[in-house]
Predict the structure.
Amino acid sequence: MNCKQLETLVAACADGEVDALRSYSVKRHLHACAGCAAMHRNILALRARIRSEVTYFAAPPALQARVRATVGAMRAAAPPRSSPRSDRWRWLTGGVLAGCTASVFAWMLGTTVLAWHADEELAGAAVAAHVRATLGDHLIEVASSDRHTVKPWLSARLDYSPPVQDLANEGFTLIGGRLDYLERRPVATLVYRHGKHTIDVFVRPETSRASTQAPRAVRGFNVAHASGPSMDWLAVSDAEPAELSAFVQRLAHEGISQ
Amino acid sequence: MSDPTQFEELVLPHLNAAYNLARWLTRDVNDAEDVVQDACVRALKYVGSLDGSDARPWFLTIVRHAFYDWCKRNRPAEMARDDGTAIDMAVDPAAVDPEQALLRTAESKALSDAVEALPLAYREVLILRELEELSYKEIARIADIPIGTVMSRLARARGLLQRSPLLRAVN
């Protein structure tokens, strides 16, 4: 190693940054090399001069007072604290609580999103079923405005008996029913006429998803939902969403009394 | 936690170190007070993150940040002079009034003046090393530079001091 390479090592040695083993070899070099020894001496001499001649400025009393005033103001603003130990516990429990809250919130958010997704999927499937039925010749399998004909026909083909109402006096005329397929299950489908609109109402035994949702639009069709204590109504039509929603609520309400 | 008690116990004992660094960086007593006051407000806010680490280098890091923010607002020219490798000039001309330097007769004044005249990047590592007696590692963390840079700046600072015309005039 030449002196040029040793320069930084000599300085590091003077700064006490070199481990004992390398420090030993540097010191051996200093004995042999006048140049490096002078450099080492100069660093130590400069340090001695700096420490004796260059002022170490102490914070003036005015600054200390200023800082203490700031701290005092902070303390006044902060709520009183107990000992550091209980503080730690408080932070720990606080952390645990925050963690729990976050988990619950995430779970709720997750289930809400999942439910929303499922609803979205169901609405899409219902619209698809409605479109398939109206496109083909499959809209009505049992053509009757008599609920006493439609209901037994459906009951005979399903493992449940859907409530069937005719609300002709309110402008919703029952024109028949069919079997359709939703969420991997056969479902009773009632077909109503409202003015020039056809309305499909899927009636299913109550699913776990509850609550009445606002009508939503899927590919230009409106989907309205209502649920009663034992059944679930899902109406699909190109009729007005508000009308459709009122209609399906009415069915659900009537369904309870049946 | 922004805990005034923790600040008083851990940080306040290093107020002198903070002021000393700020004074050598700003080269002015009033500016140094402003920088330290600002640093204290910041330290109060973040004292919760201090857990376990050494308070003095931590506080000095904050002082240094407070200084550079202050410098950006008040002396942008000094920072511009200090960037990159352009710091080859031996003396920061803004630092020393030559007439005053002549009036100063004491030797100790000469060395202080020479330190004040060092470019900012060299001055800060020298103060942290020789007055605060911090290790290369701590200085590297405070100044946010690699250890190799700490070493080279320190060597440069020492070289500049030893060759300083302010010192030579006295010697």
Observations:
- Residues 28 and 50 of chain A are 27 Å apart (CA to CA).
- Chain A has two domains: 3-53, 112-257.
